[in-house]
Amino acid sequence: MSRTHFPVTALGPGTRLGVWVQGCSLACKGCMSQDTWDPDGGVAVEVGDLVALWREAVARGAEGLTVSGGEPLQQAGALREFLAAVHAERDDQDVLVYTGYDEPEFDDNRRNAVEFADVLVTGRFDIRRPTALIWRGSANQRMVVRTELGRRKYARFLDHEPERAPLQVRADESGIWLIGTPRQGGLAGLERGLRASGLPVESASWRLRPPGQSG
Ligand code: SF4
Asked: Where are the transmembrane segments (predicted)?
């Protein structure tokens, strides 16, 4: 796992537990989370610990769970186990899973992994296809609603283009961490703004790879 956060308010409706898995081999050019690519990075956690975290978030009012990464479907077995446990004891909380795979790329393992997801956002991040759609990073990414609960909560967001992309900033001992799907140019603008305020960004998860090297 890369990290978790509660409350997340910029990736899905309401207040949510966010879980970012570690490891992604898809290497989309312009990925804002390149720190999650290395499968040997992050920290190992038991599914039971994530379930405990989820219960704690629900006790604090979580309205949903968002799983992102990294690539959640590259840990299909553990993801299924986690989402099955969440499903078994949830009330009205929805589950949103981000994956860089498109549905035609789903094999049985990947399909099983997201059986208990209400909503998927699918497809690689494509830097050439900017979008203003909420909770999507590029125009090719699809928001796939799979359950009645998902329809009830997400129908009005499918074509929603907010004036500004919802973003959260979290600061901890490892640095500043951005949650959300910034619009194209948003990260460069953020860096410029920080620099102008006397806070130059020395390293950023959206430019860890050497300049010019694409995925
Ligand atoms: S955008 Fe998502 S799928 Fe693409 S490289 Fe980054 S973490 Fe992986």
From this structure: none
